[in-house]
TrEMBL record:
Database matches in SUPFAM superfamilies: Nucleic acid-binding proteins (SSF50249), Translation proteins SH3-like domain (SSF50104)
UniProt family annotation: Belongs to the elongation factor P family.
Domain Elongation factor P C-terminal: 131-186
Matching Pfam families: EFP, EFP_N, Elong-fact-P_C
InterPro entries: Elong-fact-P_C, NA-bd_OB-fold, Rib_uL2_dom2, Transl_elong_fac_P/YeiP, Transl_elong_KOW-like, Transl_elong_P/YeiP_cen, Transl_elong_P/YeiP_CS, Translation_prot_SH3-like_sf
Organism: Rubripirellula lacrimiformis
Residue span, Translation elongation factor P/YeiP central domain: 68-123
A GO cellular-component term linked to this record: cytosol
Annotated gene: yeiP
Example of a GO biological process term: peptide biosynthetic process
Keyword set, alphabetical order: Elongation factor, Protein biosynthesis
Molecular function (Gene Ontology), one example: translation elongation factor activity
Domain of life the protein comes from: Bacteria
UniProt keyword Signal present: no
Official protein name in the record: Elongation factor P-like protein
Length: 187
């Protein structure tokens, strides 16, 4: 695959390791005959380290032997998160430290989870863009403070703390963005 054909979310091999492309910037040359440079911000799938890659548009990159599988969360134990493939019922496990960014958004029965499979092992998770969570603890709003929009912290059922508008009450279900961790709307 040529560098100019790579899109965000593509998994490629860089220096022998699979990396997920997270951002792309294109730098056009100012001189005649110079090549357009593609700068990629990527994350190593195995070590979770960020990697910066700079290539010419005609340079080639190899696609990784990588797949995304729809999975369902079964349970967590002290060290691992256990998942089941929805198609062939194969079970995967992922170390909790490898999923610590995703865990605050995961509840039992969450739809749309995709496991990142590399060499028949789960190395990461893709969550849906937003999830619905219930507020378990939230301070009540103060009457008369509605002239300006202010936020307050709310603790969700998974332990995630989100800034919500003052009119939101304990027990409500909210849509939360999994990429930024911000309140989107009531569910």
């Amino acid at each position: 695959m040529l560098a100019k054909e790579v899109k965000t979310g593509t998994v490629v091999v860089h220096e022998g390791n699979p990396v997920v492309i997270q951002g792309i910037s294109v730098h056009s040359p100012s001189a005649r005959g110079a090549a357009t440079l593609y700068k990629f911000r990527a994350r190593n799938v195995l070590t979770r380290n960020k990697v910066d890659i700079t290539m010419k548009g005609t340079d080639a990159m190899d696609e990784a032997d990588f797949s995304r599988r729809d999975v369902q969360m079964m349970y967590t134990d002290a060290t691992h998160l256990h998942l089941m493939d929805k198609e062939d019922y194969q079970q995967y496990e992922l170390a909790l430290e490898d999923a610590e960014e995703e865990l605050p958004y995961m509840t039992e029965g969450l739809e749309g989870i995709r496991a990142l499979i590399y060499n028949d092992a789960c190395v990461g998770l893709d969550l849906p863009a937003s999830v619905e969570l219930t507020i378990t603890q939230c301070d009540p709003g103060v009457k008369g403070n509605s002239a300006t929009s202010r936020n307050k912290p709310a603790t969700m059922e998974t332990g995630l703390v989100v800034q919500v508008p003052e009119y939101i009450k304990e027990g409500e279900r909210l849509k939360i963005d999994t990429r930024t961790g911000q309140f989107l709307s009531r569910a």
